[in-house]
């Protein structure tokens, strides 16, 4: 009688979960700033052509009105940085599946304060029709000379906590080492030494003589 068995290979595919989070609105002068724009898809298996356009509108001064400027676009699997005040200072910071279509401003200036508009359009590909979906998000950005006080305080506390944990770990290691050394010394002191007259031998030697 023969037995046969079949092994089945099961493949698990782990996909990242899309979470829509708001963008940060406070930028630090001279630093980089990410403008977050997320447009989650309900079903990952649906194919879609995605186009992204970013616009910028500076803060309106008294008596002056300004129009929004087209500063960045992404289409046909490539990003295009347009001419204007942001030329050379914008970088794509989105995901490969185009659910995250964020961009990054490099070397932030005071003139970067204003309203940023993220426009996303998707054309879904089905057999008989191609429906579309749109998303518009606006981000009010403020540029400051330095980071907020609580941010600096958090960084300082993080380093202080790291130093304290390192010191505590060293103390625990020294304490454990001393306890082990004391236990070894006590074990050696309490080992029997009555096997041979007028001689002090360890437990192993005693057992050896007894076996003989």
From TrEMBL:
Chief location bin: membrane
Residue span, Ig-like domain: 16-121
Keyword terms of this UniProt record: Cell membrane, Disulfide bond, Glycoprotein, Immunoglobulin domain, Ion channel, Ion transport, Membrane, Signal, Sodium, Sodium channel, Sodium transport, Transmembrane, Transmembrane helix, Transport, Voltage-gated channel
Transmembrane regions: 156-177
Transport as UniProt keyword: yes
Topological relation to the membrane, as annotated: Single-pass type I membrane protein
Compartments where located: Cell membrane
GO BP term, pick one: regulation of heart rate by cardiac conduction
GO cellular component: voltage-gated sodium channel complex
Pfam families named among the record's database cross-references: V-set
PROSITE patterns: IG_LIKE
Family matches, as InterPro entries: Ig-like_dom, Ig-like_dom_sf, Ig-like_fold, Ig_sub, Ig_V-set, Na_channel_b1/b3
Single GO MF descriptor: sodium channel activity
Family: Belongs to the sodium channel auxiliary subunit SCN3B (TC 8.A.17) family.
Matches recorded under PANTHER family: SODIUM CHANNEL SUBUNIT BETA-1 AND 3 (PTHR10546), SODIUM CHANNEL SUBUNIT BETA-3 (PTHR10546:SF1)
Quaternary context: A voltage-gated sodium (Nav) channel consists of an ion-conducting pore-forming alpha subunit functional on its own that is regulated by one or more beta subunits. Forms homodimers and homotrimers. SCN3B is non-covalently associated with alpha subunits and induces the formation of alpha subunit oligomers, including trimers. Interacts with SCN5A/Nav1.5; regulatory subunit of SCN5A/Nav1.5. Interacts with SCN7A/Nav2.1; probable regulatory subunit of SCN7A/Nav2.1. Interacts with SCN10A; regulatory subunit of SCN10A/Nav1.8.
Name this polypeptide is given: Sodium channel regulatory subunit beta-3
Record organism: Cyclopterus lumpus
Lineage: Eukaryota, Metazoa, Chordata, Craniata, Vertebrata
